[in-house]
Amino acid sequence: MTIAKEKQVLVIFPHPDDEAFGVSGTISTYIKMGVPVTYACLTLGEMGRNLGNPPFATRESLPQIRKSELQSAAKAMGLADLRMMGLRDKTIEFEDDEDMVKLVTDLIDELDPSLIISFYPGYSVHPDHEATARAVVRAVRRITDSRPKLYLVAFANNTTDELGSPDVIHDVRDAMDNKLSTMRAHSSQTGWMLPDIEKQLAAGNQEVMNWWLNERFYLYKWDQDFEDSF
What is the spatial distance between Cα 37 and Cα 217, in angstroms, rounded to a whole number? Predict the structure, then answer.
């Protein structure tokens, strides 16, 4: 699918590297098109399990390492507007719901995005992902006039059974180098998997190529019972 030009894109994820796997090609493509993109990363991922492969981080050094990795990833994507929002990893689910909605609403009020990219509530597995997704959908739901579009990432095991096929698929082959560089930037978290991914891409493995070159999004189904969906 050809990626349509937007006025302003706002990306909201809780952890450094959340953007790398599923949306970094899309982010890079928008930037190449001249579309302003803001990435609000809520935490530094300081409680991440991985410490590198082989390990090069410690519990004490990981926050600064992941901050530097996030900054390098932003550079790899061509992203100029990176916001590090200062929340603590693995605690977003315990933040006050209204505070989270306000955080998202303030970004929307400032940036007036035509498109917001985040996770899909109920289908994004990690508690921090889910809390972020709920806040984004709630904030957008309260907009009564000219809501921005929502492109949401879903990857729970029951995603296809319950949501069906993705509504939007972006072909990001023209941003393949940016995507690889973004993944490499998050080496403390991706080092264990990248060699095999690069090997499969070099060999032309069609399944891996299809996964890598196509980024998938769902549109939020506003007609469902909103609160019951969480």
Answer: 17
Domain ranges in the chain?
A: 9-222
Question: Whole-angstrom distance between the N-terminal and C-terminal Cα of the chain?
Answer: 30
- Tell me the pTM: 0.94
Indicate whether 194 pLDDT > 70: yes
Q: Which residues lie below 8 Å from residue 19, measured CB to CB, with a gap of 6+?
A: 11, 13, 27, 39, 41, 73, 77, 182
- The H or E element spanning position 118 is strand 115-119
* CA torsion angle 8 32 34 212 (round to 10): -20
**Both tokens assigned to 65:** 């390492």
Sheet holding 37-41, edge to edge: 81-84, 37-41, 9-13, 115-119, 149-153
Q: What is the DSSP letter of 229?
A: G
Superfamily of domain 9-222 in CATH is LmbE-like (3.40.50.10320)
